[in-house]
Amino acid sequence: MLKRALTASLVTALTLGAATACSGSPSASGSGGTPTVKLMVGGIDKQIYLPYQLAQNLGYYKKYGVNVVLSTEQDGGTGAEDAMASGQVDMAGAWYNHTIDFQVKGKAVEDVVQLSGAPGEREMCATKSGVRSAADFKGKTLGVTDLGSGTDTLTQFLAARNSVKTGDFHRIGVGAGSTAIAALQNGKVACVMTTQPTVAAIEKKKVGYSAVDVATTTGAKAATGGAWPAAGVIARTDWVNAHKDSVQKVVDALVATMHWIDTHSAAQIADKLPQSFVQNQLVTKADYVSALTQDKGQFLPDGLMPAGGPKNVLATEELVGHATSKVDLGTTFTNDFALAANKKEGFTTTTTPAGPQG
Questions:
Q1: Which of the pair, 263 or 316, is modelled with greater confidence?
Q2: Structure confidence by residue, pLDDT tens digits, 14-50
Q3: Burial 108-128 (b: 16+ CB within 10 A, else e)
Q4: Which neighbouring-strand residues pair with 116?
Q5: Cα of 58 vs its chain's centroid, Å
Q6: Are the CB atoms for 300 and 117 separated by under 8 Å?
Q7: Residue 118 — φ and ψ, nearest 5°?
Q8: How many CA atoms lie within 13 A of 174 on its CB side?
Q9: Is the pLDDT of residue 286 over 50?
Q10: CA gap 323, 153 in Å, rounded
Q11: Apex CA 349: angle with CA 314 and CA 234, to 5°?
Q12: What is the pTM of this model?
């Protein structure tokens, strides 16, 4: 989901690198040696998804005994969650709400480690749009990453919570990065839901402002009524059950990464990421660090699904007509792997974990 790589060359390089790494490597189901797990991220260069690459750069996948082959979505290509569901990759770095969507479609997919308690998104509105909250969406054209994406669902949900029906406004896909910025500049949309570093670029260019904050856990609680877990690792339940050792190793690495994020500054985090992520045609490194400092609060320090989070996300899906209360939330996530990872290293957990029913 959230298909918006900053540059075509970056996406191509990452995808080709993943393909090269895959060739000749044993799969997670192979016997003996270090297991290889293929993980596609829904936009690996976005701040909301930085833990996956950071874990690689910190050497944590290797430390915990797993070879993780990272790849990223391409604009107009297969979404990370769909690539996972079809078996093209083993895991997806994507939003938790997809597990609910898949269950509605009769597919068992679960979240095995939760990286954020908020979407990391902001509703960025054009300077002269007049939009100050979701209550002002009526009659406007709003940009989302793609129709049907998480940003699309969240936009509809914010509107509904403010008594604005989906039919009262128009939604179009504008991607992110330069395409989202252009849509604001040329008046194609009044607002666009997007993440850092696109948010920072919009503010720096003075073409828009943040009207609704669902970027941090505090902001998400104010806008949606509670914690809204977004970025995590999701995988097919049958694959998880058949590869529990490999899953545990991946979760061990990511939980260690989340504790590292919690104890390091935005500048220190940026120093460990690829230069192309933190300094490009949209933002300078200083912009990136400033943006991460602002929205670092979205990340959970221990990889645990927060109490009430699944129920709040289900409420979102219900309100926009994507699901009903018949969804069994207890099968859409597990804290078992994250709890084991924290126990292994003696990490202190601060998130109140969701129970079996969310």
A1: 263
A2: 433 433 333 333 455 444 689 999 999 998 999 999 9
A3: bbbbbbbbbbbbbbbbbbbee
A4: 299
A5: 20
A6: yes
A7: -150, 155
A8: 30
A9: yes
A10: 12
A11: 40
A12: 0.87
